[in-house]
Amino acid sequence: MELEKIALVMNAAKRRFEMLVENHYAFILYEMTDAHTINLYHTEVDSALEGKGVGKILVLKTLQYCKLHQLTVIPSCPFVAKFILKNPEWQEIVKNR
Predict the structure, then answer these.
(1) Which domain holds residue 39?
(2) Which residues contact 89 (CB under 8 A, 6 or more apart)?
(3) What are the Cα distances from residue 81, in Å, to 11, 50, 60, 62, 88?
(4) CA-CA distance, 44 to 73, in Å (whole number)?
(5) pLDDT of residue 3
């Protein structure tokens, strides 16, 4: 399974970034706090996908989307925050509190 090739979808109706992997959705819930700031507050990966790196790719693709669209990120989700801590190159798009 090549996770990098699986499309990330910004599902505005459900306010989540999602990927369909092996017939299961992995997603990050978000809320826009203003026109340029997005709060990523919950990540969920189906138990059938655990241990396959889906969460990491999901966060990476979501952060790439945010950077491309010039959004400042509030990483309220502990999983997202931990990813950013381990990958400090993403600090540049994190909102300074």
Answers:
(1) 3-93
(2) none
(3) 21, 19, 12, 13, 10
(4) 18
(5) 78
The torsion angle over the Cα atoms of residues 1, 63, 84 and 95, rounded to 10 degrees, is -170
Beta strand residue intervals within the chain, DSSP E? 9-11, 16-21, 24-34, 37-45, 72-75
Average pLDDT, the chain: 95
Q: How far is CA 79 from the centre of its chain?
A: 9
Q: What is the largest CA-CA distance in the chain?
A: 38
Confidence of residue 4 (pLDDT cuts 50, 70, 90): confident
Give the tens place of pLDDT for each residue, 19-36.
Answer: 999 999 999 999 999 999
The enclosing domain of 25 has a CATH number of 3.40.630.30
Tell me the C-alpha distance between 8 and 10, whole Å: 7
For residue range 55-79, list pLDDT tens digits in order: 999 999 999 999 999 999 999 999 9
